[in-house]
Amino acid sequence: MARLDTREKLAILADAAKYDASCASSGTSKRDSRDGKGIGSTEGMGICHAYAPDGRCISLLKILLTNSCIFDCHYCINRKSSNVRRARFTPEEVVALTLSFYRRNYIEGLFLSSGIIRSSDYTMEQIVAVARSLREEHDFRGYIHLKTIPDADPELVRLAGLYADRVSINVELPTERGLKRLAPEKDGGRIEGAMADVKAAIVDREDAKKKYKSAPSFAPAGQSTQMIVGADSASDRDIVLRANNLYDRFRLRRVYYSAFSPIPDASAVLPLQRPPLMREHRLYQSDWLMRFYGFSAGEVADAADAGGMMPLDIDPKLAWALKFREHFPVDLNRAPREALLRVPGLGVKAVNRIVASRRWRRLRLDDVARLTVSLAKVRPFIVTEDWRPTLLTDRADLAAWTKPAQTQLELFGG
Ligand code: SF4
Hints:
Number of strands: 8
Pfam family, one: Radical_SAM
Protein name: Putative DNA modification/repair radical SAM protein
Number of helices: 15
Cofactor: [4Fe-4S] cluster
Domain Elp3/MiaA/NifB-like radical SAM core: 59-286
Bound molecules: iron/sulfur cluster
InterPro entries: Aldolase_TIM (IPR013785), DNA_rSAM_put (IPR023874), Elp3/MiaA/NifB-like_rSAM (IPR006638), Endo/Exo/Phosphatase_dom_1 (IPR051675), rSAM (IPR007197), rSAM_sf (IPR058240), RuvA_2-like (IPR010994)
């Protein structure tokens, strides 16, 4: 490997890390240095958890320890056979960079992943060394997200969880079939085994914390995973059902969906084109329906078309409503909260405000207009004191009717 200075390494290793979407920093415990102790913070003045429109977090130093790898996953730009420029940081260099970026207010934390060098254990030791040094030698209190290596010694994964706010292990592909085809050196069973170990450690620490306040925490922001979308033939229905299965079994905080991007010198088994970014967006919306809107995975999957794909031109909540019109219109003055959450165009905030307001008076269309930003989009699906959409929900052209020109009904409007 040619000798590179830190700036050159950073250019290579930050670029190589951009393919990993699983870096959101929400949901961790509060920790700061405002009492003059330590350095960094997971919250407070000057720190924002900024998300790009596609859900990616944008305020962490997001790098790989190295983009060299002994594996040869077809979809990965860092695979062994890839003809890319390689670079490698030492743990000390990553620590110095993190502290220097933090002091300059560029970042609130670190997202660290790595290609596999020498062995899974060796790589994991290096990753843990960075987090240990930041926490123990520099009293760093900012956010740390470590990507763990599934085959690594469970003791190393446990150490990672002691230092990190969040740990993640990528399942990579939505189906075992896809994993075998595109990442033949990876083992779905071992990936899930590692996720189960992390879950058990999180549960143990939570129990210990209930008894002893001083019990050390373990990955307080939980664990997450990432699935690549569009590199194999898995449908949106497959992806939604798989995500739900992972949430249930491993108590994941988040599943991230990353639209496959074609890479230079791509393997012949990969598609030539990336899937539309809107597909990734629709999967995130589907995920929200399961996590915040009370939809079961089966219901969300039912919004897909006959080929198992979510429509791209309308959001999954509207797609579901158009398919299951017997659930509408919903009477905003009487219906339970769960039914309100199913109305296209009503977000959680709007529903909460409707539930609070209707305790005092019967809601009219004007009231709904004040509570939402998308009355025109909501109207076909609701009943208020002065409004009933006669036969509207039976219209064959309701989908077009609910879509203003050039814009579409948004799931989280209102
Ligand atoms: S193990 Fe990770 S870094 Fe290595 S080729 Fe596979 S996906 Fe890429």
